[in-house]
Write a structure and sequence with these properties.
heterodimer; A: 236 residues; alpha/beta; Rossmann fold; six-stranded mixed sheet; globular; B: 137 residues; mainly alpha; 5 helices; 85% helix; 0% strand
Chain lengths: 236, 137
């Protein structure tokens, strides 16, 4: 495994104003992930997991602290820079899959390539390759509502992979799936990591995820720390 | 990127329920008014009212959900803020245009005495309909 650091954060803080006062979603989060690693971040609901993912994906900015993803200092990037980051460097798979309901499987996977202005022929071959890769050949014209939860998750993974990002971020990827489909999706992450060398960060409270990660972190009340698999199991 | 988001917006409008209901309503109205007006009766009037309202409700409720899912999807895929602004503008304006086309058709041919009841009922329930839809949204 290459030891190059691909995700690095230092003293990240994120504070939300709510009607009930200020809530610190992240409190001084510092961690790093090496290229090619699969990392799990575990913790209960409301512990700050999704906030951390959104900051790494450039969807939110921290109130304080530093974030570097694949050499890009996110604090230095403007809105267009963060959009470029989401298009080519980071693939985010939200819990609800984030697929566009009226677009087909093919069109959803093609979207990042379309926005990156990849030529049509190249787009076509890449999309077909990805559809075959996720095992949905023959379902190109299906709409998300015609797919099962596991299939939607696969499409979301393929879409996130379309521009071959360095980092894949998955928010509770097994939360809406049964045991069998959850394992298939986790196997797919492992396969993606092996085939493309993609760094993967999985946020989850599902103990099954622990079998597929190289390292585990636990986040509680916005504080992140690295833990052993046994300790992570206790936190899940 | 602007051309790409505009093409996505147009694709989504072309698949929207607003467009489908508007086309069917307009076609039915045109059919009854210009060809077989004689059979336009209460059933026709209610059918048209239902279709027109479905188009309206779709534009503010069902297709709004589609718009929100599209915005989320596009942002995740790396659309810039300016591109998203253009996407929303094109989507909502074209959607409104589709509804306007329906209303223009209704206005042009809706003064026929046999369909005047349609207009009266349609206008009468409009405030209630708007209230219900707004509450749902």
């Amino acid at each position: 495994m290459c030891s190059e650091i691909v995700v690095w954060t230092y003293d990240l803080w994120k504070i939300y104003k709510t009607p009930y006062g200020m809530i610190s979603a992240l409190r001084g989060v510092s961690f790093s992930v090496r290229r090619g690693e699969i990392v799990g971040i575990h913790g209960p609901s409301g512990s700050g997991k999704t906030t951390l993912l959104k900051i790494l994906a450039g969807l939110e900015r921290p109130d304080r602290g530093e974030v570097i993803v694949d050499g890009y200092d996110l604090n230095q990037l403007d809105e267009n820079g963060l959009a470029m980051l989401r298009n080519t460097i980071v693939g985010l798979i939200p819990q609800d899959y984030g697929l566009i309901e009226e677009l087909t499987v093919y069109e959803n996977i093609e979207l990042p390539l379309l926005l990156a202005r990849v030529p049509k022929e190249e787009r076509h071959s890449r999309v077909i390759e990805l559809i075959e890769y996720i095992g949905l050949k023959g379902r190109e014209k299906a709409r998300p509502k015609q797919l099962s939860g596991g299939e939607k998750q696969r499409v979301a993974i393929a879409r996130a992979l379309s521009n071959t990002p360095s980092v894949l971020l998955a928010d509770e990827p097994t939360a809406n799936l049964d045991q069998e489909n959850a394992i298939k999706v986790l196997e797919l992450f492992k396969q993606v990591n092996r085939d493309f060398g993609t760094t993967i960060i999985i946020v989850s409270h599902d103990p099954k995820v622990l079998d597929y990660v190289d390292r585990s972190f636990v986040i509680r009340n916005g504080v992140l720390r690295e833990v052993s698999p046994q300790e992570a199991l206790g936190s899940s | 990127m602007y051309f790409e988001v505009i093409s996505v917006a147009l694709k989504l409008v072309s698949r929207s329920r607003t467009l489908r209901y508007s086309v069917v309503t307009s076609a039915l109205l045109a059919l009854f008014t210009f060809t077989i007006l004689g059979i336009a009766n209460w059933v026709t009037v209610f059918l048209l009212i239902i279709l027109e309202n479905l188009a309206f409700i779709s534009s503010v409720y069902i297709d709004r959900q589609l718009l929100l899912s599209a915005i989320e999807g596009l942002i995740l895929c790396g659309a810039t803020r300016k591109a998203m602004y253009i996407f929303r503008l094109v989507y909502s304006k074209v959607n409104k245009l589709v509804l306007s086309t329906l209303f223009i058709v209704l206005l042009t041919i809706g003064f026929d005495p046999k369909l005047i009841m349609y207009w009266v009922i349609s206008l009468a329930i409009a405030p209630l309909e708007a209230y219900v839809v707004e509450r749902r949204v």
